[in-house]
Amino acid sequence: MECPRGLAGVVVDQTKISSTAGAHLTYAGYPIEELAHASFEEVVFLLWHTRLPSENEIAVFRHQLVSQMVLPAETVRLLLYVAKEPQHPMSILRTTTSLLGTTNDVDHDEPPKILAKMLITVAAIIRIRANEPLLEVDPHLGVVENFLYLMTGKRPSKELARMFSTVMILHADHEFNASTFTARVVASTFADYYSCLTAAVCALKGPLHGGANERVFEMLLEIKEQGLDPREFVEDQVKQKRKIMGFGHRIYKNGDPRAAILKQIAGKLAAKTGNSEYFEIQRQLADYMLQRFNLHPNVDYYTSLIYHCLGLDKEVFTMLFAACRTVGWLAHVMEQRNENCLIRPNSEYVGPTDRHYLGEQIQKRGHA
Predict the structure, then answer these.
(1) Is residue 203 classed as helix, strand or coil in its secondary structure?
(2) Phi then psi for 101, rounded to 5 degrees?
(3) In 3-state terms, what secondary structure has residue 357?
(4) Which residues are responsible for catalysis (predicted)?
C-alpha cells in the first residue's frame, strides 16, 4: 500500500472550526472574504464558539481579553534576561510559552487569558529586542490597537488598526495545518493548554510552515539591495535548485484567497511608508512565477512586506504569525479535548524482517 506523502488528502478527523473544502476558506461556515470585514474579537469568539457574538457579548469579551494582557513578574524577569540573546525570537517564544505554564494557574487558566498572555508576550519580546521599555495596555483600546501599540509604541490610526485586524483574522486559523495538528495531538493526551501551545510554536518555527514569511523578506531584500531583475533572480534560483519562498500551496492551486486580500493591504501600506519599491518587486515576481510555473502567492508572500511596513525586523515575523494563530490553536485544543480521544495513528513498516539477534550472535562467534 502506497501512503500519501505528508498525509496529503487524508481525512484524520472532523471539525466545526474551519474548512478549506473546494479551495475556499471558511470559519465556522463564514467565507473568509466576508470575515475580513469583521472585528478581530468577533472572529476569535466565532472560532471558539462557532457562532457570532451579540453586541453585549463582544463588549464583555473585548474587555476580558484586554484586561488580561499583563505578564507575570517572573515571566518579565526571564524575558529581560533571554530576549536580548542571539537566539531566534521563535526559540524565545517557545521557552516563554512553556514558562507561562509554570507562572500561571495552569489548571484554571482559560483561553481568553491564555490568548491575552501570548499576545503581550510577543509584543514584549519585540520591545526588549529593540531596547525599548515595556508598555502597559490602554483599557480604552481594543485588542488589535493594543497589540500594535505594545509592539511599536505608537497608537495606531483607525485605518492601520482596521488593516492589521484583517491580517490577524486571515492568520487566525487554517484547518489542520502542521502546527494546529501538532497542538491537537498534544491536546488528545489531555496535556494542559500551555503544553499544547508550546508544541504548536515549535512546529510553526520551521521554514516550510510559519518561518516562510521571514524567508520571503530575505528574498525581497536581496533583490532590492543587489539591484537584481526579479525574473533573472527566479531563473538563477531554479538553476541552483532553490525554492522560491512564498509561492504555491498544497490546497490552493488557483490562488490563496488570503493572499488576494493581503495584496491590497500590502500595496496601501507600502505606499504610505515609502516601501513601494518592495511592492513593485513583489508584483514582478508574482507575475513571472504565474507565467513561468503557474504558481500563485500564498499567505506568507504579502504578509512579510506588511510586517516590514510596521517597522519590524524580519526575525520577528514568524512570532506575529504565532500570535495570530494562537486563536486557532486554542479553538482546536478545546475541540480536541471535547472529543476525549487519543490521537495514535498506525504506520506501515517497510524495514527489514526475519532478523534474529541470537542467531546473528552465534554466527559472529563462529567466525571469530
Answers:
(1) helix
(2) -75, -5
(3) helix
(4) 249, 300
Number of residues that this document lists for the chain: 368
* Residue 209 banded pLDDT, cuts 50, 70, 90: confident
Q: How does pLDDT run across 54-70, given as a tens digit for each residue?
A: 999 999 999 999 999 99
Whole-prediction pTM value?
A: 0.92
**Quick one: pLDDT at residue 3?**
66
Which residue among the candidates 249, 296, 308, 332 is catalytic per the annotation? Answer: 249
CA 82, 83, 87, 91 dihedral sign is: positive
Q: What pLDDT shows up at residue 207?
A: 81
Distance CA 190, CA 107 (A): 12
Non-local (6+) Cβ contacts of 160 within 8 A are 148, 269
Is 300 among the residues known to form the active site?
A: yes
Q: Which of 212, 197, 208 is nearest to 307 (CA)?
A: 212
- Reply yes or no on whether 107 is catalytic: no
Reading phi first (left if > 0) and then psi (alpha if -120 to 50, else beta), residue 340 is in left
Catalytic residue among 173, 174, 296, 300: 300
pLDDT band at 346 (very low <50, low <70, confident <90, very high): confident
31, containing H or E segment: strand 30-31
Structural element, H or E, at residue 18: strand 18-19
CA distance readout (Å), 192 to 250, 276, 291, 322, 323 = 31, 45, 48, 18, 18
